[in-house]
Design brief:
Gyrase A, domain 2, 4 helices, rod-shaped, alpha+beta, four-stranded antiparallel sheet, 21% strand, 57% helix
Amino acid sequence: MIRINLLPFREARKKENVRRQISIYVLSVGLLLCLMVLGFLRLNSTLNQVKAKKAEKVKELAKYKDTNKRLAEIKKKISEIRTKLEVIRGLDKNKLGPVHILDEVAMAVPRDKLWLRSLAESRGKLTLEGTAMDNETVALFMNNLEVAQHIKSVDLKRTKLRVLNQYKLNLTDFSLECKTFEFKEKPKKVAKKRSKKGRRKRRK
């Protein structure tokens, strides 16, 4: 009976299996590393694109910021012109005197702090009604009117607090009476009194 020693074949097969497993492991690790590198490169590329877009947006925002500043300045000028036009139209509607008075009233209005609702003139008396941010703004408006060349005096007739709950804002309604250069005091009537002696003489 012939005996064959199979141990060398078994050991060779084991070594081959070990080599195969090591090769598979190395290839798996290499493939995983390649995938990680590719993923990193892709993420880095995406990040660079996002940064580039962010830089573009920042530049656009800077341009819009300058544009918004210009728009704000233009709106401010338009608001000033509208205020003057409203004052002039209101005064013209009520047939108030010369144009220089209209200009003085328009120039006396504090910007974005006081709004006139009505203007009326009668025999040199100018009545102004409107709304202000506070009493200090009304006082400033009165001071501006008092230094006007064609307005003689300014009297405060009334003030009233207006509360806007929805905006959490307190405003002041006011009424002023001004005397213009056209105002003339009415001459006082002197009552004629008859003396008792004159009456007695007439009765005689």
